[in-house]
Amino acid sequence: MNNGNNGYDPNNGYPNQNGYSPYNNNYPQQGYQQQNYQQGYPQQGYPQQGYQQQGYQQQGYPQQGYQQQGYQQQGFNGYTQAYTSTQTKISMAEFSKRVYAWMSAGLGITFLIGFTLMHILLNNMSLIEGFLPYFYGGIVVEFILVIVLGFFVRKLPYGVSLALFGIYSVLNGITLTPLLVVYGAQDAIYAFAATAVLFVAISIYGIVSKRDLTKLGPILLIGLIVLIGYSLIAMLFRMPSDSLIISLIGIALFIGFTAYDTRKIKTGYQYYQHDEALLKKSSVNIALELYLDFINMFIYILRLFGGSRR
What we know:
Blueprint: H1 27-30, H2 32-56, H3 61-85, H4 92-123, H5 128-151, H6 158-208, H7 216-236, H8 244-272, H9 276-309
Helix pairs in contact: 4-6, 4-9, 5-6, 6-8, 6-9, 7-8, 8-9
């Protein structure tokens, strides 16, 4: 009745061969732990071949995904490599030469036209009345060109920017002519020579100085607004605009602008050195600013010389 071979406990029952108790033959060995959990989910599934081996670690996120082929190699670092490979071949020295070349070309055009028209008008005073419409029209167009070159230079092609700068230089030569006629050739030549020497000296200072000149920007802007406002009031109420004090203030103001704008050569190169197209356009814009500094400094020096002779 209680046979050890055929009963429940020993051999043929549930525990040893076909029963529930033997965790060695049924559930543990072939069941969840060995084949399912160990061979299934842990060995072939999540840890070894699943998420760790093929997924996250080996083929997934770290090795081939985010770190190797993703963000580092093809993502941010790839962008950095591409960005560096397109770095401009224009050096700082070449950029500076380009700026001063355009500025010198503009000044050459302006003063060539101005002195030529001055000579013509001084020898033919009857032409002055017919010249006035060109003078006022030139002022209006100049104002428009300054706005276009100052605010839209990044959107304009490089050749267009140069062409507009050349047109502005021509117009400025026309609008400068009446002032040259009033003060005469001798004072104009002296003023030009003095302006050139002073401009070169201040430009050298702006290049070699280690002082932070960015703080001058707001001060110079306020001074320019005040000076323009006084000039407009003097024009309307026929007040003297070429007095000694006004001339000295104007000279000091544009000396500051010259040093400030000269420093833009270095900062402009550092800012646009990775984009050759914008770097070329920036050279035209900085050349225009230095050109205007020279012209305005020349005007106030000419007024200073002319006022001292009266």
